[in-house]
Design goal:
heterotrimer, A mainly alpha (about 500), B mainly alpha (about 475), C mainly alpha (about 120), A: about 500 residues, mainly alpha, two-stranded antiparallel ribbon, 20 helices, globular, B: about 475 residues, 19 helices, about 75% helix, about 5% strand
Chain lengths: ~500, ~475, ~120
């Protein structure tokens, strides 16, 4: 009985828990425990769904019993169950972490609000992923975005407010663009159900309106996923948000946006329209490559490590766009793999920076001289995560790079392989700056002595670090899942 | 025990050393004792494997599958066995030496030193036994990363700059050139296993062969071909035992070993011969050979001089590989061993001098032979081996290289080998002369004698091995014969 | 069909551009929010217009009408309006907090202060 309703529960549980969490009010710890339990429950549901999908293929769930295409349909296939696993998995690691971190970084009065927003954000992200309805996707996107704006504004630095405001403006413009695109599609087809849309778009043939809708959607989604020239909101938002928020949205929000992009390009518009008629890869590849090079170089010059990681995120999104733009199953597999893998590595890196912030109060590289000896576990996690970001073998980063280079060489587009490799080399530089500061510089005498971060921060961080290595050493699960998802998206071979 | 178990043991033993050393960090004697015991055990395991391989077995182990078709796979062939034997033989000796050196110079962070040393040895074993390119790459990178803390051990500005150059060049070449080369090979051949005769025949032709070969040749930065040799002198900031084992043996040998392995088991000799511009590969090696010797001539710092000498000697091995004649491959493989024993002796001697009297420059060594007779005798033997004068191991390997050059009908290469031998002589002979025959300068009236006994014992052992190899080259020969047949 | 028959859509475009321009060009944070509102409103009108069926009546089932306007876009846009209200509320409350923190709601002033802080770090 329950197992039949799992797709709905995946979203409804966190959504209902959010107001409950707020009502718990000053019992802050209770609110935290509730949200942690909810995140674990979400993971359990996602895992159950994954098993169902692995057994029986696609799951279709008509919300409230209204048959699609009139009612809202939730649809789970191999593609989005992977994203569900990422989001809920990351949440279930990060929510336990949040308590200590939040005590240090967020005003106690605002903490109930904080956990409420985290749950709302989680509900929104899971909803975007699972829904099979284009308009529903917009609503859930706004739920997650609005809660993210709030979460960012809770950062201690007053620049968090302007960062949040900037994100609000850009994010709303992006969402409105998506809304316009969805409206145009509705005008053309009279449906909002994704599967239905896909069928009817195939029948339309060439149409100016369809092209316009496509354009609006790509720009709108591009804003949400920080596609290169539209990424300006991201660095400040990640840098000034409370550490746990940076970690959570870096590991999940942009991933979900990339998922939406893939969903629109492949499922709704179909790869023939997207690539053969609209030549979208001629946008994605240059934009992705410029992002890889440009933002990686910018990252090298950052003094705030959180902001450095933020720029690196934009570069990593560049890799994913390139993977899509290669228009091959291997390329798409690389993108989906990197979606998963990047969530693990950035999650681990941001969490370790959260632990640094817990002790030092900020994450400026100048203050991190010599802390490698005082916080060995924290910085060890950073180094381990950094190696994964560079793409050293036995880490997940290596697996994604391997597939991406493979995809580029398959097409014979070796300059792309060169730039991908160059991007990793720049990553060596910016990761190594931190390593040098932490391990090779002496701690200045007059600086405060720091001690290792508490276990409540270290355990989740290391869980993610170990995941980086586990899925790097035995990638059969992730590659199996992503490559079959990619094959499905391209239609049967 | 089966071959697979032994391979696993050879990888796990050094890593167990890591655990043991970190547990015993409070008690230095116990800690060093542990290192010695583990290194002896490793030697035993490797010798077991050696006897298996000599008997014609090819032990194999598939550790795990990272991606479909992309495995961590080990398979021992004669060349890798040779490299592993050299590294495993020298580890116990080097451990003994380290004890004397690290204590004698009161170095800090000794536990960290032993830990990363053990990791580096494990990585070297992994490189030696790798059964495919990806496994080779994985352990190659582990070796780079684990030796970084050793290079930057002192932690001062110099060490940091040296470490940065070291890591920078090695990572940039490996990720930037070697990895694409591996992926390229994979897309072409559909496999990346090392198979005698190569895997690329029929999948690639024309200029692409040359390009791929260049990617490999420069991607394997540890082989220190010019112009990517800069990391090697930079790494000389490390404590001497590190320079000795890692930069005369494990790291650089991992580099040239990989080059030989790629030439023999990925390309196959016949394929490269077809490549347009294959001669250029020879010229790159020749250029490095001469240029490094010329630079070595101008170095006053003893370790720097040894470093540039290493670059030159490595180029012999690469030259042997790219000459593409069976005899020159034999010479290259032999030279890996000969140079390992000879160069480690030289580094040991340099460290011994530094430990006992803190001298680092060649110009300070006048008359030191009378103060430190054992050290300087060993040094002289090592130097003779570098030049290639009997009765040392260097003679045999150079002999084969020369014969290989004749066999390949590359008379220019013959000339280069002879010229560089003369150059080798001209930067080593003056040191030997000064040490034994010049008078000590009057200001240095300090009294000092030999270095601590572990140091002296170690360097006498390696010098002895250098001479022994000249008289008993049987085992390496038999192994190498297996490659060419 | 003449240009005038698409009157609603002309209005949509005019409002959209006016709103979009205000968001980008105005330095005052409140005006930015107002611009954003206009921008979103234009989309609401677009949705409402697309639901209109020529000759159709309000979608209430009666005996004397067979043709109804499409109610779905109207319902959809109710949701979007709620979202827009929430966004506006959040945006305005952020402006209040920014005013408290920086004593200004002019983007240029705030940017100057932020830059000084960036450099002081």
């Amino acid at each position: 009985m329950i197992s039949h309703h799992l797709p709905a529960l995946q979203v409804v549980v966190p959504l209902m828990a959010a107001p409950l969490c707020f009502l718990l009010g000053r019992y802050r710890r209770l609110g935290w425990i509730l949200s942690t339990l909810v995140s674990w429950l979400c993971l359990w549901i996602a895992v159950r769904l994954a098993f169902q999908v692995a057994d029986g293929g696609q799951i279709q769930y008509a919300f409230g019993g209204w048959a699609p295409p009139w009612g809202i349909e939730y649809r789970v296939d191999q593609l989005n169950v992977l994203v569900l696993l990422i989001v809920s998995g990351i949440a279930s690691v990060m929510f336990p972490y949040s308590w200590s971190s939040v005590q240090n970084e967020v005003d106690p009065e605002q903490q109930p609000l904080f956990f409420t927003c985290m749950l709302l954000c989680l509900a929104g992200l899971l909803g975007i992923t699972i829904t099979g309805d284009a308009f529903n996707l917009f609503v859930l996107l706004e739920i997650s975005s609005l809660s993210t704006y709030t979460l960012i504004s809770l950062g201690r630095d007053r620049r968090a407010l302007t960062a949040s405001f900037q994100y609000l403006i850009m994010g709303t413009i992006g969402a409105t663009f998506i809304l316009i695109g969805v409206g145009i599609l509705y005008m053309l087809t009279g449906t909002l159900n994704m599967a239905d849309l896909s069928d009817r778009i195939g029948e339309i043939g060439e149409s100016r309106a369809l092209q316009a809708g496509f354009g609006f959607l790509i720009v709108g989604i591009g804003l949400k996923l920080a596609m290169f020239p539209l990424h300006l909101w991201l660095p400040n938002a990640y840098a000034f948000a409370p550490s746990i928020v940076s970690a959570f949205i870096a590991a999940t929000a942009t991933k979900v946006a990339v998922y939406v992009m893939v969903r629109y390009l492949f499922t709704i518009f179909g790869h023939e329209f997207s690539f053969s008629a609209m030549y979208i890869h001629w946008l994605l590849i240059p934009v992705g490559l410029i992002a890889v090079l440009f933002t990686s170089i910018v990252a090298v010059f950052q003094r705030d490590i959180k902001r450095m990681l933020a720029y690196s995120s934009v570069a990593q999104i560049g890799y994913m766009l390139v993977g899509i733009g290669l228009v091959s199953t291997t390329g798409l597999t690389a993108t989906l793999l990197h979606l998963f893998n990047h969530a693990l590595m950035k999650g681990a890196l941001f969490l370790s920076m959260g632990a640094v912030c817990y002790r030092l109060g900020n994450t400026l590289i100048d203050n991190m001289d010599g802390i490698g000896r005082q916080m060995p576990w924290t910085m060890g996690a950073f180094v381990a995560g950094g190696l994964s970001l560079i793409g050293v073998p036995l880490t997940v980063g290596f697996i994604s790079k391997w597939y991406l280079i493979l995809a580029a060489l398959e097409k014979g587009w070796w300059p792309i392989a060169v730039i991908v490799v160059l991007g990793s080399l720049i990553a060596v530089i910016y990761v190594w700056r931190v390593v040098e500061a932490a391990y090779l510089h002496q701690r200045p005498d007059q600086s405060v002595t720091v001690v290792e971060a508490p276990a409540s921060l270290l355990v989740p961080t290391w869980i993610l670090v170990l995941a980086n290595y586990y899925f790097g050493i035995d990638a059969s699960f992730t590659t199996g899942f992503t490559s079959s998802a990619a094959t499905t998206l391209f239609g049967a071979p | 025990m089966t071959g697979g178990t032994l391979i696993l043991l050879a990888l796990a033993l050094p890593l167990s050393g890591v655990i043991g050393v970190s547990i015993c960090r409070q008690n230095p004697n116990l800690r060093e004792g542990f290192t010695l015991v583990v290194s002896m055990l490793l030697l035993l395991v490797v010798l077991q494997l050696l006897s298996l391989v000599m008997a014609g077995a090819r032990p194999e182990l598939i550790l795990l599958e990272m991606l479909p078709g992309l495995e961590l796979r080990f398979e021992i062939e004669p060349l890798g066995m040779l490299f592993a034997t050299v590294a495993a033989t020298l580890w116990p000796i080097n451990s003994l030496y380290s004890i004397g050196y690290m204590r004698g110079n009161e170095e800090s962070h000794q536990t960290r030193f032993y830990i990363f040393f053990a990791v580096a040895i494990a990585a070297a074993m992994g490189v030696a036994f790798a059964g495919n390119l990806v496994t080779l790459f994985v352990f190659y990178e582990v070796l780079t990363l684990s030796t970084f803390p050793l290079v930057a051990h002192k932690g001062n500005q110099m060490a940091m700059l040296g470490g940065r150059t070291y890591l920078g060049i090695l990572l940039f070449t490996s990720i930037g050139l070697l990895l694409p080369a591996i992926v390229w090979t994979w897309t072409l051949a559909g496999t990346n296993n090392f198979i005698p005769g190569g895997i690329l025949t029929g999948h690639i032709e024309g200029g692409a062969i040359t390009l791929l070969a260049l990617l490999f040749l420069f991607g394997i930065g540890k082989a220190a071909l010019m112009p990517i040799h800069r990391w090697l002198p930079a790494a000389m900031v490390a404590p001497t035992p590190v320079s000795a084992l890692l930069h005369a043996v494990a790291v650089v040998k991992a580099g040239v070993f990989s080059v030989v392995k790629v030439v023999v088991y990925i390309f196959g000799l016949d394929l490269i011969k077809q490549a347009p511009g294959a001669d250029w590969l020879i010229w790159i090696a020749c250029f490095t050979l001469i240029a490094a010797s010329l630079i070595a001539l101008r170095q006053d710092n003893l370790k720097k001089r040894l470093a540039y000498s290493t670059i030159g000697q490595l180029a012999y091995v690469v030259l042997g590989a790219v000459l593409l004649a069976p005899l020159s491959i034999t010479g290259a493989a032999l030279h890996i061993i000969a140079h390992a024993f000879g160069k480690i002796t030289l580094f040991f001697a340099a460290g011994s001098i530094y430990t006992s009297c803190k001298k680092t420059e060649v110009s300070q060594l006048d008359g030191i032979g009378r103060r430190m007779p054992y050290t300087m005798t060993a040094f002289s033997i090592g130097a003779l081996s570098m030049i290639g004068i009997p009765p040392t191991a260097g003679f045999i390997s150079k002999w084969y290289l020369l014969m290989g050059a004749f066999q390949a009908q590359q008379l220019a290469a013959v000339a280069v080998i002879i010229a560089s031998t003369l150059l080798n002589a001209s930067y080593f002979i003056p040191v030997i002369y000064a040490a034994w025959f010049k008078r000590e300068s009057s200001e240095a009236m300090l009294t000092y004698g030999e270095a601590p006994w572990p140091v002296v014992t170690a360097l006498c052992m390696t010098a002895g091995l250098t001479v022994l190899l000249f008289f008993f080259p049987g085992i390496p020969f038999e192994l190498i014969q297996q490659i060419s047949t | 069909m003449n240009a005038f028959s698409l009157f609603n859509y002309w209005i949509v475009i005019i409002l959209m551009m006016a709103g979009f321009y205000t968001v980008i060009a105005s330095g005052n944070l409140v005006k930015k929010i107002v611009g954003l509102n206009i921008f979103q409103t234009s989309v609401f009108i677009m949705y409402i217009s697309m639901g209109k069926v020529i000759g159709g009546t309000a979608p209430i089932v009666t005996v004397n009408s067979e043709l109804y306007s499409n109610p779905l876009p109207h319902v959809l846009i109710l949701t979007a309006i709620v979202v827009a209200v929430a966004t506006t509320a959040l945006g305005l409350s952020l402006v209040i907090r920014i005013k408290e923190a920086y004593h200004s709601i002019e983007e240029d002033d705030i940017l100057a202060i932020s830059q000084r802080e960036d450099e002081a770090e």
